[in-house]
Give the backbone structure.
Amino acid sequence: MSGNGTNGDAEIQVPESKKSEFSGFLKTLSTFTGDIYSLTCPSFLLSGTSTLEYGQYWADYPEYFAAISEPTKEVERAVAVLKWFISTLYGSFASRKDKDKIEKKPFNPILGEQFLARWEDRYGCGETILFSEQVSHHPPISAVYLENKKAGVSANGHTGQKSQFRATAARIDVTQVGHVIVHMRDHPEKYLITLPSLQILGLWKGAPYVELSGYSVIQSNNFNIVIEFSGKGWLSGEKHTFNGVVRKNGSKEPLYTASGNWSGKSTLENHLTQEKTIFLDIEGTKRANPIIASEDDQNPLESRKLWKNIAQSINEGDFAMASKLKSEIEQRQREKVKRGDNTPLQFFNWIDTDQVFLSLNELINSKYQVEDKYKERGSWVYNKLLFENHNN
């Protein structure tokens, strides 16, 4: 069992007064076919947070992000990318379980919704900034850009989900759509990061939690890292485990292996020296707090301002009011789409053919290639000029 409270065997956490509604929701799930994104979730299972805010977890440890560019050896920079990527997982997939005791569903962002944040200098790493924008509503796609100018490191990516309920296994399977590309100002190589699949477990016990499954790949011009995720099975295993192996492109010989618990402690083995060191200690390292503009300084499309009244109703336990207000926002969104009144995107534009992505994806073993799963060729790319032109 993980020491951070992500035990899926916890006692039932659904309020007594809501168990009947929860049972009805599970019955709907069990007979539903297709992507469950379109299903309406009971308000007491909503987290009060927009999915778009999840981009902030990319900078839970901004010093790890900034450290990507520090090593002089390319293989060590690859290991630094792996360390940063693993450090984003706890916030993204397990931190809300600690807070709310169960994993709750975030709001589906509306088209054009924005989430902006920054992190002050921590341990000398310099300021880190984040731009997130909902670039597609059907299918739902969020674009994210993270940058640390002092370190000369940026990450540009887009993410989405395709969800399906597996009645026989009593779980929701989530395929993550999208990818992330890391750039450095002072080094030539790029890093393509593919995204793991998710499973939402513990539904029948009324204590949902997220487990990662399958593989992620970090692919650079000269090195590749295959990360395998696994969790506790029926009879054995440990929750939230990973094993990431660093190799030279075209070689089967491991150079480094990072393994352990992505929500706790992990180790790094150098296969050349046989030395093992601490890789990450998520439980023992405080996450950085994002700085977000006050509500008065936010525009109407920023997540905290957009969903404020619904989140407040959820926190106060007024789920009927939360459902009413949420329905009003969703209805206005449907009417805008029907009128063809699309809000211009402020931060991102679509590139039909992303040569950086395509060239790196070609280097990935066909078993793990993004294109095989998602048929992607392009990317949503942060465009500073687009933002500046919109606001001039």
Notes: The chain has a mean pLDDT of 86. The longest strand covers residues 153-166. Residues 68 and 81 are 6 Å apart (CA to CA). Residues 319-339 form the longest helix (21 residues).
